[in-house]
Protein 1
Amino acid sequence: MAILSRTFYTSSDTVQLAQDLLGKTLVSTIDGVRTAGIIVETEAYRGPEDKAAHTYKGRNTERTKVFFELGGMTYVYRCYGMHHLFNVVTGQEKEPHAILIRAIEPTEGIDKMLERRKMSKLKAALTAGPARVTKAMGILTELHYALPVYEADSLLTIETGIEISPEQIIASPRVGVAYAQEDALLPWRFRVKDNIYTSPAK
DNA sequence: CGTTGGATCTTCT
DNA sequence: GAAGATCCAACGC
């Protein structure tokens, strides 16, 4: 499989990229052990205008500083004090956009993912949900913040995967962002239709 | 099946 | 001091 080049993350609009990422393969390599899965659910966050984004109004803190780099870097942060959520920074320098990876369909290293999730049998709950994805792949804020996903020796890479046609993509409002008022209604959540690792179509 | 509450870090008021 | 880009176990039907 081929690693996507850095230009993939900088040459299109973030909302388009969130759709383009569906079908691509997220790969984590820790201590030589590879775990991988097809991306089947994403959400776009477009600071500084987007009220739901951590970079709303250009907020630049220790946590969000990687947003301001050129696209293709990882943004991992802690959510509700106990989960790690994984994003890919997109766009140009000083353009604080990112795409949250919400669900994957496991393809490689499933035994390792089951072990990390303390599960015995493969089912959708293994990697359906942003915090589940990071747990299954061993992604941690301390270990995986601000890494290039376009470099072959990176702990996290994104590679080519399967073709997803526009008809297979479902757009809907983002999850858990009611506080963002009118921006909460933007249809910036994208899912692969009929995939069991995302919630069913409505 | 649906609902509830606990875990507990970062950031902003 | 409060709330958040969440998950899961423990309930009650």
Protein 2
Amino acid sequence: MDVLRLADALVRVSHMVQHVFADVSRDHGLTPQQTQLLCRLVRGPMGMGDLGRALHLERSSLTGLVDRIERRDLVLRLADPHDRRACRVALTEQGAQVADAAHGAVTGRLDLLLDGLDDAERERVSSAIVLILAGHTAATGVRWT
Amino acid sequence: MDVLRLADALVRVSHMVQHVFADVSRDHGLTPQQTQLLCRLVRGPMGMGDLGRALHLERSSLTGLVDRIERRDLVLRLADPHDRRACRVALTEQGAQVADAAHGAVTGRLDLLLDGLDDAERERVSSAIVLILAGHTAATGVRWT
DNA sequence: TATTGTTATACTCTATAACTATA
DNA sequence: TATAGTTATAGAGTATAACAATA
């Protein structure tokens, strides 16, 4: 039971994080997909293409997702000055607040589960995960930052 | 960039695992939710209540999920001998094969990303994750095994 | 009365294919 | 011709509320 292949451990912790994510999203009146979208935009506006790659969605799926959340005034589509076909999706002020609150709630809940780890251990696990994510970026081109 | 709160690292690795999970599911003609359902049943049949708690789903949502995958002969509902209201969901032989193949593909792909970690490091990270999951189980009662 | 599971309904999420407008 | 994004459509996933049957 304590002997667990790392790949299996990653799958299980991922499902657990999904559950936390779903609970927090619901608390904030969002679907998990909407929360993910908002959190991706915290760093700044993104085009639909990049956003779709980041969220692993077909463009048409993303159109609908953005439509629904734009109707709620959490994001808006800006014209791209360099390409009149394209648009850039940006958080509204309210969207930024919601994104920040949801992100804080997720990490807050996860922190509660990290009681059993000391600082050195956290740093070690965190570093290992950064390595794993770097491998994924190298393989797929999708950045996790 | 290398300094990342562990909670954030967990969220990011979780999204990465979801993408792998989605790709593998598609390769096997399944949705991610169906794959998760099948993999949960590998240990043996489960009642709808337990299954719903494990997958974090309302009972009515689970009814539909099981309906659709039962139509494809990957699971079936068995009568519960001790409670005539209840049923137990079990993998068919074909369902067990699909579950096994999908699980192997997911862990196989993840293993490719773990090249940069030596055995000791893997063991350390795996143990830390087991601790985290144990905390989640203590808080919610949902087992991850 | 409480619990197990289903049904009815209304959304959201997602992909495929066809389309428009711009590059 | 190729690319960015949308529309149309169909199916899957999800929750809430109301229900049936059994405990």
